[in-house]
Amino acid sequence: MYKVKVYVTLRESVLDPQGTAVKQSLHTMNYQEVQDVRIGKYMELTIEKADRNIEEVVNELCTRLLANPVIEDYRYEIEECVAQ
Amino acid sequence: MYKVKVYVTLRESVLDPQGTAVKQSLHTMNYQEVQDVRIGKYMELTIEKADRNIEEVVNELCTRLLANPVIEDYRYEIEECVAQ
């Protein structure tokens, strides 16, 4: 069994209105030291061992569903663990 | 200047309908090996150095705005970097 952590972030060149809104809220709350906020997604997947290479599967999941490769980048960490 | 990465996840005991929906989509797409999906938030903050301890500031940001401590857990990584 694998525990896979996937991080999806907007590409640098893409505007992040959600991040801007959070930054403005923080400024309103008097945290002037916050200069920038970018918001992304974090996903934890539990995947069973199969015949296929796990990295290949995860890349496919990311490009086909979890991330939009046009505007988002993704990275992942795979951790193998023993089934209980 | 600090680069802070914040990970916000739903507590184990809280249902994650978004994760369940993604899992079902993956099953429909024939990725039967995916057993579980949990979805969280990932945030990158750029924070200027101030008089206060950075960890204290980040904990405050998380509990006051970025996470809902009733249903969510958070963890963070702080990286100090030289301003350009």
Automatic annotation (TrEMBL), chains A, B:
The metabolic or biological pathway listed in the UniProt record of this protein is:
Purine metabolism; IMP biosynthesis via de novo pathway; 5-amino-1-(5-phospho-D-ribosyl)imidazole from N(2)-formyl-N(1)-(5-phospho-D-ribosyl)glycinamide: step 1/2
Predominant place of localization: cytoplasm
Does the keyword ATP-binding feature in the UniProt annotation? yes
Its annotated compartments are: Cytoplasm
The entry lists its GO molecular-function terms as: ATP binding; phosphoribosylformylglycinamidine synthase activity
**Gene Ontology, cellular component aspect:** cytoplasm
Function text = Part of the phosphoribosylformylglycinamidine synthase complex involved in the purines biosynthetic pathway. Catalyzes the ATP-dependent conversion of formylglycinamide ribonucleotide (FGAR) and glutamine to yield formylglycinamidine ribonucleotide (FGAM) and glutamate. The FGAM synthase complex is composed of three subunits. PurQ produces an ammonia molecule by converting glutamine to glutamate. PurL transfers the ammonia molecule to FGAR to form FGAM in an ATP-dependent manner.
What is the protein named? Phosphoribosylformylglycinamidine synthase subunit PurS
State the organism named in the record.
Heyndrickxia shackletonii
